[in-house]
Amino acid sequence: MSNLPNCPKCHSEYTYEDRDFLVCPECGNEWKVGAEAESGNGQQVVKDAHGNVLQDGDTVTVIKDLKVKGSSSVVKIGTKVKNIRLVDGDHDIDCKIDGFGAMQLKSEFVKKA
């Protein structure tokens, strides 16, 4: 029997691993392996694509062209995003990007500037 954690959304015990993610077949939630690990002060540890720890207020740079859902626009590689805010969920960075407005990004597509 495996020692996988329960789903953080629906608390189902039927989670399974799929590459670097854990998946819940009941609600469809996906999260990174190790994302449930927290630092000593109770805060979630969020790391960029290179393994640097991110904090609220940091400036990051986009490392890949990202399509904007519901639009034909693209956030270009090298776009700087200032004053990020870390949130829980699959898209763990909340920010405002000039020309696009408020949006959420995955930490795996940014590097700390």
From TrEMBL:
Signal peptide: none annotated. Residues 4-31 form the Protein YjdM N-terminal domain. PANTHER family: PROTEIN YJDM, PROTEIN YJDM-RELATED. InterPro entries: YjdM, YjdM_C, YjdM_N. This is Alkylphosphonate utilization protein. Belongs to the YjdM family. Pfam families: YjdM, Zn_Ribbon_YjdM. Residues 46-113 form the Protein YjdM C-terminal domain. Gene3D superfamilies: 2.20.25.10, SH3 Domains. It comes from the Bacteria.
